[in-house]
Amino acid sequence: MKVWAQRRREDGAALASAVPVVEGASLLELLVVDVTLDGNRRPSKVARLYPIGEQKRILAQLAVPELVQFKGWTLALSGIEERKDEYQKIRSTSQTWVCQLYVPDAAVGFRVKDMYQSGVAIPRSAVRDGSGTRGRLVVAGDYSAALQRHTPCAELHGHQISTFPQKRLVNCGLLWMSDSTFELGGLHVSPAHGDRPEQLERAGWLCEIDVKERELSKAEARRLR
Fold first, then answer.
1. Which superkingdom is the protein from (predicted)?
2. What is the pTM of this model?
3. Which of 54, 60, 50, 51 is nearest to 19 (CA)?
4. In terms of pLDDT, which residue wins out, 176 or 223?
């Protein structure tokens, strides 16, 4: 997805204020993918920043990225930054990126589609063709009574004022991000019902930016009749 990206650390130390991840760069492409890093056979998750339309040129990278916050159009990723020290050895330090999403003027929130139903994976074609649920996406740390600990939680709030979110994921994580969509994975708390106890089920959301459709003018509506 297209973002303006800033970082909060320099060589692992906190900065007084955030600075651009890539000095002199403006809008960048943010992708989260699984790759095979040097010396490792198993794929590892990384977050990468590229120039727009140039996915062969990596400008910055975070290893083992974690989504720590998402509010409005801003997300924060925490991970490991690797750089060579004065002895040409790889030094790994903590880093946090704060990314402001570039969205269309008519964007009103997110459209979220379930990847699982009662813990069973939904076929990709059905997910793709589904209408999804529309609302405002929020990710933050919260206490989960089901897990009995604090954990990242994702909530989708409707555009209408409501006490409770429309949807909620606990133990939430960012699985991948492409140029237009991303997937959150986690657990859904299925409440107790009758003799069945409370259950934790695997869940996931396919998220895309929701753009408000322009209303047709009277002349356009007449032409479609």
1. Bacteria
2. 0.87
3. 60
4. 176
